[in-house]
TrEMBL record:
Pfam families to which the protein is assigned, alphabetical: cNMP_binding (PF00027), HTH_Crp_2 (PF13545)
Any GO MF annotation of the entry: DNA binding
Coiled-coil ranges per UniProt: none
Gene3D superfamilies attached to this UniProt entry: Jelly Rolls (2.60.120.10), Winged helix-like DNA-binding domain superfamily/Winged helix DNA-binding domain (1.10.10.10)
Protein's UniProt name: cAMP receptor protein
Taxonomic path: Bacteria, Pseudomonadati, Pseudomonadota, Alphaproteobacteria, Hyphomicrobiales
Annotated SMART domains: cNMP, HTH_CRP
Domain Cyclic nucleotide-binding span(s) in chain numbering: 16-136
UniProt keyword Lipoprotein present: no
All residue ranges annotated as the HTH crp-type domain in the record: 150-224
Keyword DNA damage: no
Keywords noted in UniProt: DNA-binding, Receptor, Transcription, Transcription regulation
GO cellular component, one term: cytosol
Amino acid sequence: MRDPTTPETTIASRDLLAALPAELVAGLFASARPVSLKADQQLFGTDEAGETCYRVESGLLKVSVISPSGGERILAVIGPGAIVGELSLIDGAPRSATVTALREAKLASVSRAMFQGYAEEYPELYRHLTAILARRLRETNAALTATSFLSVKGRVAEAVLSLAEAFGHDVGGGRTLVRQKVTQSDLAAMAGIARENVSRVLQDWMKRKIVSRISGYYCVENLAALKREAKS
């Protein structure tokens, strides 16, 4: 098996704007300004004015919301190739979530003026955005259903499966290594449950050889079993 600490060039992002045609993305970010973030540094916060959007060049970011009591819910974990912050450029409204670096990250930044100028020159950008935002809405509906009806174990399973889909690497034997380091606290924030519950679920799965931990990375040992857990 390959060393999980080596760079992985085929990491995918769940961010749906990564599905934009490559030529549109390249043109939009042709004159982008570089931005660097340290681990735990915030890129922008909820309700801030949105004047820029960003493409993730390297590193890992989380998109989250904070409850009035201070609890965090992670809406998405995004990696290289993802675009974030575009909603405020489209509708002019403040940021709808907070984006923070989970680890050191490098991004490319495009201003509102650059975005709008490019969209005027290439109006097909909006056609792609419409389809992408519709798919996002469907994902949001699915996530709401999961939060409302799934058990604690099912919520954790959905969180791990989403990470495996976005950042998974087949290491043979039906095993999928999640090529990004996430903590139990991150999984808890994704699932909307307490970290202690995540710990108990993971311990059970490790005993049953459904999930393992390799050098700080989660590995799905039995994908079929994990999918069954997501429905429990």
